[in-house]
């Protein structure tokens, strides 16, 4: 991907605006995820009359499709260029809304309606992985690989914001216009984003021999494992903090989640240049330490205040882990394979969040809720040791020197 011409480095504000001009497509894709997220389980269970299993499956299908399609999204972004991948992904988001609309129109045939909802969720999973991976790589192509960390950070902010905004907006739209109206809004969001993306200038796909998936995995798996271990902290906070507060007999779990979210976004906004100044591995190791302290405070908390401080520190610590390790992982491969590297690296976080819930649930049933936070802190300690190993190992050959 082309680098900015020397002497034309944009200011901080202009740089952020250029990144956001592309990250907005990632925002749109995640908004189409957030809008139906709080609506579809109740619709499937209460309106259509299916069991809670089917209600959960409808939601989970999107995550499975995203997980399976991410490596393909990265490879095609390398081969075809990120703009085409973003356009393809936004088309998938649009078609998911169309599937919801057809499902709502076919409510007299519940099985057909359910099948259409499932189809829409699978299409959405493919659309999100392509739009998300493509948007990040498009942003890197616009501002140059020097700012990979900032691009990944901003994409994380917009996706988190879109999910947080989409769920309550979706509930309001559903109460106002039903599933049909919500489906039309989802289609409109994707269509507007698509019409904005089409006239934008593309960045050229890098030329060169693509690496095999196995070779890319060999370059990034250690960074991905560190990310997966650290992501457990996010998983246990987001999934079980409400149960933790209930077990303690406290109120204020929602506020604790708000503190986590504010710390997550605020840290990315306050330290936009930390990765460039300190290096990705150094920032990741600092973040691991902060996250470990936060999880330990939650695990041993005997007062709501201590638990809130713990969730705040956990959010701040986890905030920069993904971009900090991502910068190093992406630069471990030649430029023409960076899309595959980013997608492969991201898969580790998807898998971690997928398995954290059930495994932590089993541990919680056996040993109590506080133990899951202590166990998660132990996993982040392993991530810290892994980061130290990566920092101390001898420098590898330049990526271009090997296939």
UniProtKB/TrEMBL annotation:
Residues 185-403 form the Major facilitator superfamily (MFS) profile domain. CDD domains: MFS_YfcJ_like. The chain crosses the membrane at residues 19-41, 47-65, 85-103, 177-199, 220-241, 253-271, 283-301, 307-330, 342-364, 370-388. One of its GO terms (molecular function) is transmembrane transporter activity. It is a multi-pass membrane protein. It is found in: Cell inner membrane; Cell membrane. InterPro entries: MFS, MFS_dom, MFS_trans_sf, MFS_Transporters, MFS_YhhS-like. GO terms for cellular component: plasma membrane. It comes from the Bacteria. The keyword Nucleotide-binding does not apply. Keywords: Cell inner membrane, Cell membrane, Membrane, Transmembrane, Transmembrane helix, Transport. Belongs to the major facilitator superfamily. YhhS family. PANTHER family: MAJOR FACILITATOR SUPERFAMILY MFS_1 (PTHR23517:SF13), RESISTANCE PROTEIN MDTM, PUTATIVE-RELATED-RELATED (PTHR23517). This is Uncharacterized MFS-type transporter CHU32_12245.
């Amino acid at each position: 991907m082309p680098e900015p011409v020397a002497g034309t480095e944009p200011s901080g504000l202009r740089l952020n605006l250029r990144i956001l001009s592309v990250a907005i497509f990632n925002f749109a894709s995640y908004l189409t995820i957030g809008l139906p997220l709080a609506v579809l389980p109740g619709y499937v269970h209460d309106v259509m009359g299916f069991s809670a299993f089917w209600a959960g499956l409808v939601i989970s299908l999107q995550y499975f499709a995203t997980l399976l399609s991410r490596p393909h999204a990265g490879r095609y972004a390398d081969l075809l260029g990120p703009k085409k991948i973003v356009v393809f992904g936004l088309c998938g988001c649009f078609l998911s809304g169309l599937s919801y609309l057809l499902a709502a129109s076919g409510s007299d045939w519940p099985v057909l309606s359910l099948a259409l909802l499932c189809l829409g969720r699978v299409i959405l999973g493919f659309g999100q992985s392509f739009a998300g991976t493509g948007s990040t790589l498009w942003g890197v192509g616009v501002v140059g690989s020097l700012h990979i960390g900032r691009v990944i950070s901003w994409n994380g902010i917009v996706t988190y914001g879109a999910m947080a905004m989409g769920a309550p907006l979706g509930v309001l739209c559903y109460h106002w216009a039903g599933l049909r109206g919500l489906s039309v809004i989802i289609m409109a969001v994707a269509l507007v984003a698509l019409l904005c993306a089409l006239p934008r200038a593309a960045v050229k796909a890098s030329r060169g021999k693509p690496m095999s998936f196995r070779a890319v995995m060999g370059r990034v798996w250690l960074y991905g494992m560190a990310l997966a271990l650290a992501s457990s902290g996010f998983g246990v906070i987001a999934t079980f903090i409400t149960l933790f507060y209930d077990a303690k007999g406290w109120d204020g779990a929602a506020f604790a989640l708000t503190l986590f979210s504010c710390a997550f976004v605020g840290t990315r906004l306050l330290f936009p240049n930390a990765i460039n100044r300190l290096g990705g591995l150094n920032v990741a190791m600092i973040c691991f330490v902060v996250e470990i302290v936060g999880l330990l405070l939650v695990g041993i908390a005997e007062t709501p205040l201590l638990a809130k401080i713990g969730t705040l520190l956990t959010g701040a610590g986890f905030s920069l882990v993904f971009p900090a390790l991502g910068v190093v992982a992406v630069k471990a491969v030649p430029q023409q394979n960076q899309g595959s590297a980013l997608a492969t690296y991201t898969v580790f976080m998807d898998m971690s969040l997928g398995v954290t819930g059930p495994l932590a649930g089993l541990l919680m049933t056996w040993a109590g809720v506080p133990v899951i936070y202590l166990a998660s802190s132990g996993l982040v300690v392993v991530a810290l040791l892994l980061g130290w190993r990566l920092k101390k190992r001898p420098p590898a050959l330049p990526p271009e020197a090997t296939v």
